[in-house]
Structures are given as structure tokens and as C-alpha cells.
Design goal:
Chain lengths: 328, 296
């Protein structure tokens, strides 16, 4: 069942140089208990798309249009006061930097309890007991003791687990995780991803995972949306996406990924890069934004915007000349 | 619930976080000689102000056999033109100085911090309006502004406290606002918004506690400024009035007897210098301790 439905989301920011087009008409949906990856390189609009859902964008300079429906309820027009009741309760966010995402002046237990008191109206005592359970849920050993500690006493991995505990304290319907493992050691990353998987399995939380790391996507996501320059260029179940990428950009991303298979006969690894760079976000041309970096581009790629079109089971790609099976 | 993916081991936790942090800060502080000198001077000043008046004779008691008497066992620091014990007057003067320093700083903080918080957090039209007003006040030299205010309010200890408090206000507002501008961009503030926290909660639980250190340092700078300010206003006759023994009032009297009884000027002068020096050294030490980047 569809839990979250985003239709034609467009986000721009007013700057001194003009309107910056961060997201250009993205539509996607999220089912209950699904882990959806939003992936793409820096500046492709994946974070802005995620932050649009609880509207964590600078209110004065943001131009947002389109529709974001959670359980059928439109979020885009909600006044700030009502949105505050949605944030942290129905929609939670885990940010990238665990070292700075916690308030250094209060204990971990206080910070978890605070959210429970706000949204669930729990007493301090009940909130504390819940906080211990939550720390245990996210895999923190000796939670009864950790609860009295300050953020600076915890390691990065521990802090990220605490941030996740705060995010899931009120059993949100949707958890948005913005590069949650990027700042962590590879060894700690796997543990944190396990926590997400486990939360989905136990609590049925739907997760939007924003990441540039295709390894993370392959590891944990059910479905992925590939974004480029503010547009969704391909979306598919993860297995399908990796087996049969349709969009030349997606293929380019995969070729840039270090894998054992990509190593040459001499065992040395040569990664392919995508030539060129992101188009300017100040203009919004009616063209495929990838055309000048694309080996398959033809004349019509410059004059029309390719729409997402079905190209396999649950597989959509926005390309006039999608890759065929086995063409990689 | 099972614990999942646990690889980190738990370090034995010896003490709670806050006490642990305090102990670390204290260790860092203790290693520096100058801040320790400052701390000793401040503690001595506090003892003098709080305990001194209880153990010395009445500072207004006149002993006409001892007018302008040099230091002696009966009057350890000598006696003034009316035969009043200088030690007793120094102790009472310390009390006046402490009141003027602490109360005016408190006033500046209580009014200035909320204004700085609101201006720095909400920005929009409020911030430029407040900051331009602050700039206007800062354009006047501190003492000139304080003298002007004291002249309007009238000469008394209360007048001194208000004049110095308002004269210190712009600095407090500016420092608070600057800190708020830095702290509001921190990830944990964004995280609080994402958890559904309201403005009041974010201001008092997330922003204010994390701006506290520079404000504490500012207070240790504001207190000595106010001590000098009180002495100056009282010296000029705009502050505490005789016969109340303020250090500034004592200096006014001492002026006439500089060649006969120089100790009358020396003691209050030395006291003002030591008290001010003590708070300033302490403030510098706290600044270093709170900001490890400036540690040497």
C-alpha cells in the first residue's frame, strides 16, 4: 500500500544569482515497510527532495510546488504549527553528521526523553524507561548507563545509533536518512545499516535512504530512484536496477564503482569516470540534462525532456535511447 | 529485544558526564599560573567584601585623636581626615564595589541575553533594528555614556547600578547575537527542528546552553569594568555619596591630603587595581579553558 506519494515536486531557491533549480518535477512513492534509496552524486537534489517532505528548508528563499501526501494527507500546504506535530512523530530524519547532530549540553537520555514528552506526552519517568528500551533497540550495550552520558562520551557509531533512537522514538511512519553512514567507518557502517534493516522488520518503518553510495543501496534498499540534476532519471527494484540499468547515467555510476569484477586481467583496477560535469542549476532547459555527457545522445535529447517510461517490471527510465539488455 | 550488530566494547564509566567534564576543565585551568592568581585575587576580594565589614569597626566611627594617622596597630591602614579607620572603609567599599559590579552585570545579562537571542534567532527586521541601536550606543565611550545616564538617574548606588548596567547592555546583546548566529547553524538545531521542537524549546534548550561559555567570560570582563565604573562615578560625585565608603569616594577625599597622608589614596587605588586585575585574569583563564583552540 502506498504510504507516501510525491507528485511533480519542484523546489527552487532564490539566490543572488537567480533561481536555483534544485528539484525539477520529481514523482515517487513509498510503500509501507519499504526501504527506498534516493541516489545520485552531490547536488543532484536527493537531499532537497528528502528534506521537502518535513519541509526542513529555509522558509524565506524556498519555492516549492507539487504534492506530498502522507497517508493521503497533503503536507505541502500545512501551516508550520501542524507540521511541527508531523516532524519527529510521523516523519523523522537522521542526518549525516553524528558528531554534531546531538545537543552537547544534555545527556543522551534527556534528548530521547524530550521527543517522547513532546509527541507522546509521556512523564519523565516513563520517557526514561522508553529511552532505555530504544537504546537497546538500536544496539547500544549497557543502555541503563549510557543514558546518563553526554554525546562527547560516545563514539561516532554510538552517536549515530542515538540519533536513530531519537528519530524512531515515536514510531514514525517514514524515516528519512540523509547519508546516515557516510561519516562513519566502513566497519561501523554495516552495523548502522543493520539497525535500519531491523527497524523496518520490527516496526514496519518505511525508510527513504539518501545516499551517493551504490554499495549501500545494493546492501539494504528494496527499490532505488536515481537522480540527476534535480530529475529522477531511473527507478527500479534494486536487483533489477543493478542487473539491467536502462539510463546511461545509471550505468556510468555503476562503472565508477570499485568492484572485483571491474578489475582488469592484471588485477589492477581502472574506474570509469563520466566525462563532463553537472549542468548549471540556474537554467531549466527543455532538454535531457545529461545529453552533453551522454555517449548515446542524439538531436532530440537537446530539444525535449524525456519522461519516465516503463522499461521492465517496476522499472522506469527517463531516456529516449535506453540501454538494452546486455548492452553494458 | 536482542542487541544487534554490537561490536563496540563498553569502556568502564568512572563518573557521570558533567562532573567528568568539570574535572577536565578544572585540570586545564589549574595548570595556568596567571588565571590561578586571578582566582586567588577574586576569592580574596569576595572574602573582603562579604566577611570584612563584619570583623572591622564601624567605617563611619570618627576618632578625632587619629585624624590622618599613619598605619598603626590601632588603624592598620591608617585613618582619614575625620579619623575613620581606613581598613574598615576599604572593607565596606569592597562591598559597594561588589554590589555595583555584580548587580549591574546581572542587569545587563538579564535584559541583554533575551534581546540578543531573539535578534539572532529570528533575524528578519528585528535584527538590523536592534543592531543599529546597539551601534549607536557603542559609538559613545563606555564611561561617557555611563556618566550621562548616572547624571539623569541621580547619584546613588542604585543609580550607579542602572547606569553601568545599561552602559554594558550593547556589548552583551552583540556577543549573545553573534553566538546565536553561530549556534543556530549547528546540525543539532536542525535536528531539533526535524524532531518537531518549537521555537521556545530550541532557544532555551539548544541555543542558550551552547552559547553559555562566552557569556560567562563576558561576565568576568563586565564585573571589573563595572567596578572601575562605580569608582569613577563615585569619584566624580555622580555615584555613591559620602559618607558611604566607596573606593571612589575615598579617592575624592584623599586628593586633598596627597602630601600629608598619601596612604589614603594608595589603599583604595591598589584595591581597585587588584580587584580589576583579578577578574580580568580569571576571565582570560576561563576563555582559554572553554576554547581549547586558544590553549597553548
Amino acid at each position: 500500500m502506498t504510504l507516501l506519494e510525491i507528485k511533480d515536486l519542484t523546489v527552487g531557491f532564490d539566490t543572488e544569482d537567480g533561481l536555483v533549480h534544485a528539484v525539477r518535477g520529481v514523482s515517487l512513492d513509498l510503500a509501507e515497510g519499504e526501504i527506498l534509496a534516493l541516489c545520485g552524486e552531490s547536488g543532484c537534489g536527493k537531499s532537497v527532495t528528502g528534506m521537502s517532505i518535513p519541509r526542513l528548508l529555509p522558509p524565506d528563499s524556498t519555492r516549492l510546488s507539487g504534492s506530498i501526501r502522507l497517508d493521503g494527507r497533503e503536507l505541502t500546504g500545512l501551516p508550520e504549527a501542524e507540521l511541527r506535530r508531523v516532524r519527529g512523530k510521523d516523519v523523522s530524519v537522521v542526518f549525516q553528521e553524528p558528531m554534531t547532530s546531538l545537543n552537547p549540553s544534555f545527556t543522551v537520555g534527556y534528548q530521547i526523553g524530550e521527543v517522547l514528552r513532546r509527541h507522546e506526552k509521556l512523564s519523565w519517568k516513563a520517557a526514561r524507561a522508553r529511552a532505555v528500551d530504544l537504546l537497546r533497540l538500536v544496539g547500544i550495550p549497557a543502555p541503563e548507563r549510557r543514558i546518563n552520558e553526554y554525546p562527547h562520551q560516545l563514539s561516532g557509531g554510538m552517536r549515530q545509533r542515538v540519533v536513530i533512537a531519537i528519530a524512531v522514538a515515536c514510531s514514525p511512519r517514514v524515516l528519512i536518512a540523509d547519508e546516515p553512514t557516510t561519516a562513519l567507518d566502513v566497519t561501523i557502517q554495516a552495523g548502522v545499516l543493520d539497525v535500519f534493516r531491523d527497524l523496518r522488520d520490527r516496526l514496519g518503518t518505511a525508510i527513504i535512504l539518501i545516499t551517493h553510495d551504490l554499495g549501500v543501496v545494493a546492501d539494504i534498499a528494496d527499490r532505488a530512484v536515481v537522480m540527476y540534476a534535480g530529475r529522477a532519471v531511473e527507478q527500479a527494484p534494486v536487483g533489477e536496477l543493478f542487473a539491467r540499468p536502462r539510463h546511461p547515467y545509471t550505468l556510468g555510476l555503476m562503472k565508477a564503482l570499485p568492484t572485483a569484477a571491474a578489475a582488469g586481467a592484471d588485477g589492477r583496477l581502472r574506474l570509469a569516470e563520466i566525462p563532463g560535469m553537472l549542468p548549471s542549476s540556474l537554467s531549466d532547459p527543455a532538454a535531457c540534462l545529461f545529453h552533453d555527457r551522454c555517449p548515446r545522445a542524439k538531436d532530440d535529447c537537446v530539444t525535449a525532456v524525456p519522461e519516465l517510461a516503463a522499461s521492465g517490471p517496476g522499472h522506469l527510465a527517463a531516456c529516449f535511447y535506453p540501454l538494452e539488455d546486455g548492452s553494458r | 529485544m536482542a542487541e544487534l550488530g554490537v561490536k563496540e566494547t563498553v569502556a568502564p564509566v568512572v563518573s557521570s558526564g558533567r562532573a567528568d567534564r568539570r574535572r577536565r576543565l578544572w585540570r586545564r585551568f589549574r595548570r595556568r599560573p596567571l588565571p590561578m592568581v586571578g582566582l586567588v585575587l577574586v576569592v580574596a576580594f569576595l572574602l573582603l567584601a562579604l566577611v570584612g565589614p563584619l570583623v572591622t569597626p564601624d567605617p563611619s566611627l570618627q576618632d578625632y585623636n587619629a585624624t590622618l594617622a599613619p598605619p598603626s596597630p590601632a588603624h592598620p591602614l591608617g585613618a582619614d581626615d575625620l579619623g575613620r579607620d581606613v581598613l574598615a572603609r576599604i572593607a565596606s567599599g569592597a562591598q559597594i564595589s561588589l554590589q555595583a559590579g555584580v548587580l549591574s552585570t546581572l542587569l545587563a545579562m538579564v535584559i541583554g541575553i533575551p534581546i540578543g537571542l531573539v535578534a539572532g534567532y529570528y533575524r528578519r527586521w528585528l535584527d538590523p533594528v536592534v543592531m543599529r541601536m546597539v551601534d549607536v550606543v557603542l559609538a559613545f565611550p563606555f564611561l561617557v555614556f555611563a556618566v550621562g545616564l548616572a547624571a539623569i538617574i541621580g547619584p546613588s548606588l542604585r543609580g550607579v547600578v542602572f547606569a553601568l548596567g545599561f552602559a554594558q547592555l550593547p556589548a552583551v546583546i552583540r556577543i549573545t547575537r553573534g553566538e546565536v548566529l553561530a549556534v543556530r547553524e549547528m546540525d543539532y538545531v536542525m535536528a531539533a527542528v526535524a524532531d518537531g521542537a518549537g521555537d521556545g524549546h530550541i532557544l532555551f534548550r539548544y541555543i542558550l546552553p551552547n552559547c553559555a561559555n562566552p557569556l560567562i567570560v563576558q561576565a568576568t570582563v563586565a564585573i571589573p569594568t563595572a567596578i572601575i565604573g562605580e569608582a569613577t562615578l563615585s569619584f566624580l560625585g555622580l555615584g555613591v555619596q559620602p559618607p558611604t565608603p566607596s573606593w571612589g569616594v575615598m579617592l575624592t577625599i584623599a586628593q586633598q591630603y596627597l602630601d600629608q597622608a598619601p596612604w589614603l589614596a594608595i589603599w583604595p587605588g591598589v584595591m581597585i587595581a587588584l580587584a580589576t586585575l583579578g577578574f580580568n585574569l580569571l576571565g582570560d583563564g576561563l576563555r582559554d579553558v572553554f576554547d581549547p583552540r586558544s590553549a597553548r
